[in-house]
Amino acid sequence: MYLDALLERHADLDAGEVAAYIPELAGVDPSLFGICLATVDGGVYEAGDSRIPFTIQSMSKPLTYGIALERLGEDLVRSRVGVEPSGDAFNEISLTPVTGAPVNPMINAGAIACAGLIARGEEQPSDLVLDTYSCYAGRKLEIDHAVYESETETGHRNRAIAHLLRNFDVIVESPEVALDLYFRQCSISVNCLDLATIAATLANGGVNPRTGERAVREDVVRGVLSVMTTCGMYDSAGEWLVTVGLPAKSGVSGGMLAVLPGRLGIGVFSPPLDPRGNSVRGIAVCRDLSRDLALHLVRSGEQIAPFVRASHTLAEIGSKRVRSDRQREAIRGASGRTAVFELQGELGFAAVEAVTRRIAECNEIVELLVIDLRRVAHADTGGAGSHAPTLEASCCSTHSRARSKRRAESSRSQAAKSPSSRARTRSRS
């Protein structure tokens, strides 16, 4: 199996060190190594230590950011947390001058700010976070209390960041409340399968592909994946985007999740970290997956199947549905002026543009238009909503051409039948 070979390929990669600044993570076995892929139609592929538990750590940040966006709205959240890449380490104090707002929600300062926003509006914010994460993973998750206590006792830098945020009124209540929620979210126990399922849920527009439950609104997913793409890998985000090209998030426990929107989610676990806090084997695995399976979001020159599968008039291919005599007669009368377009794939701007262009280039006069959507897998707002008037305008244009043609034919017919016309014909002859 491919994943087994991939695991074996990188098993001897011994670079990196486990995170020692959190005492509970310092003693983890550095040889642990697991890979899992989960597809948006519910498929799961695993290799190695994919069911070994570890804490989610910073991989929690996109999920909490999504909760904040969904609960409080983008305007409020963006007023407290930016979306710009920092180019700094995950625990750097990267704040916007004057306002003091964290530059993005993927660094510790931004994640603590998001936790503070959620904690302010919820009676039991930790229950909300735990329930939401569980919905993403498709099973009930729990907090690793030993790690939670370890982070609480040693998280002095995070505590300093929280008080600095309070100074700028980014956090408007007790910093300890925001910190407690942040430490709890980072201490939730997951495994490699959970990471892949969480990533697949994001890839699936917020719906868990294994349970069918919605974890987050679809419109929120775009914002979450966007900041994962530009900020998820901290000060190696640029290198990651060039070599792997997927929205991703890493954690100091050695976990890593990556998302191919509309297709699949990836989860990797290997504790040794590089100097930037990312799993050494995790990066190597994702790099190979992206290359071997052509997962990079930017695929220059790649041609997809044509959106218009076939087109014809009803005169060329008739309807096979059983109809009344009256209906059949009506169809026969309009068969030469009725165009049928069979679409396939995803209905978006490009598909609508292809149909309207084919209508405009059509030599026949089209008065009626039939769109066959049976092979369309998905319709986005660009295809289903905002560009519907384009099709209507094209149809109106063909109607206008048809009316003009009929008027011209009628005029010629009437002229041929008039006495003066016959007289002129005899005179010329």
Account of the protein in words:
It contains 18 helices and eleven strands. Helix 5 (108-121) packs across helix 9 (175-186). Strands 2-1-8-7-6 form a five-stranded antiparallel sheet. The chain is of the alpha+beta class and 429 residues long. Strand 7 (255-260) and strand 8 (264-269) form a beta hairpin. The chain has two domains: 2-292, DD-peptidase/beta-lactamase superfamily (Beta-lactamase, 3-Layer(aba) Sandwich); 308-420, Transcription Regulator spoIIAA. The termini are far apart.
| CATH homologous superfamily classification of the largest domain | DD-peptidase/beta-lactamase superfamily
Query: Poorly predicted ranges (pLDDT <50, ≥5 residues)?
Result: 421-429
Number of helical regions = 18
Radius of gyration using CA atoms only? 30 Å
- Class by SSE composition: alpha+beta
Strand order of the largest sheet: 2-1-8-7-6
Distance between the termini: 88 Å
**Text of the CATH class of the largest domain:** Alpha Beta
As a percent range, the share of strand residues is: 5-15%
Per DSSP E runs of 2 or more residues, the count of β-strands stands at: 11
Can you describe this structure in just a few lines?
By secondary structure, the protein is of the alpha+beta class.
What keyword list fits this structure?
429 residues, alpha+beta, Transcription Regulator spoIIAA, five-stranded antiparallel sheet, disordered C terminus
